[in-house]
Amino acid sequence: MELKPRRLLSLDFFRGLTVATMILVNNPGSWGHIYAPLEHAEWNGCTPTDLVFPFFLFIVGVSIAYAMGSKKLDPSSHNKTILKALKRGLILFGLGIFLSIFPRKFSDFDFIEAIKHVRIPGVLQRIGVVFFISSILFLKLSEKNIFRAIIIILITYWALMIFVPVPGVGYANLEKETNLGAWLDRTILTEAHLWKSSKTWDPEGILSTLPAIATGLFGILVGVYLKRKDVDPAKKIAWLFSVGTVSVLAGLLWDLEFPINKALWTSSYVLYTGGLATIVLALSYWIIDVNNYNRFTKPFVVYGVNAITVFFVSGLMPRLLNMIKIKQANGDEAGALSWFYQTFFPPYFSPINASLAYAITFILFFYVILWIMYKKNIIIKV
């Protein structure tokens, strides 16, 4: 018998698990002391941390299928729905820009200078773009054509990166600073608006957003299939596990020629991470929604229903707290959050465990706030 609730508990669980992991890897106590699985791959390859962002974009796609399914059946509502999607996409993009521009010190903040050097790409910006474009494609295309769009995007991106000579370099390549995407970012955005850690390329750059859209579309197709009422849950799970496994294998095979790479968001990376996300969601659906084993889900559901809100605030709060200066025993001043870390973690743990303990404390702190919001049914929709 098919499940009646439109909202999947397993989807909220998966979303919450993903955003909690995002916060964990983004907020270590010390960037110099991090366990290897909590770091991104140096370039090619994929660590558990490299799964987090594509999982979230995949979930965005699944959510589109659930939230806009009825709108798709009513063409007269498409324009209104697209405008709403545009508004939400712009809000997400704007929040990302705000985090990029938000000063760490108000005393020496120059707004005009900040605008001149603000990083334009970013995580929230990419989520906004992927959400908007994926919403349009979902409303306007059939499932078969969405599948074709994914294939076209992945092959086109592969061909561009592998065969198109990079201006100024003279040949196609996949290196950090000399690949086609890096050249396009520097040409259009200029180095002033790119990732401050490199200035010559950006992990959320313009060209790599194209395959990121394919990740969102991948999630849409999975969401459409999960919503079907004419398919038994057991058959859904079997098919999703099969599709996920085939996609992972296809990604690994393509990796031999077009390496799995998060910063480039390569086509092999889309297939590999999309397949793993499908498997994780299918497993969660089977355990949580079909068999009703859901007692362990509450902490992650609490995170999942306010995912964007907690991600944004978790990026904003450290900057606000570190504006508060506390004098240390040696006479130097430290930001409040830095003082908190140095006072309560390194004295009692090894460096790497102190860094991890701080990150876990960060997650627990937000869990308390989110739990109160959840109990009061406060859901901030961005």
UniProtKB/TrEMBL annotation:
The lineage of its organism: Bacteria, Pseudomonadati, Bacteroidota, Sphingobacteriia, Sphingobacteriales. Keywords: Membrane, Transmembrane, Transmembrane helix. This is DUF5009 domain-containing protein. InterPro entries: DUF5009. It comes from the Bacteria. The keyword Oxidoreductase does not apply. The chain crosses the membrane at residues 12-31, 51-68, 89-106, 118-139, 146-166, 205-225, 237-254, 269-288, 300-317, 355-374. Residues 41-98 form the DUF5009 domain.
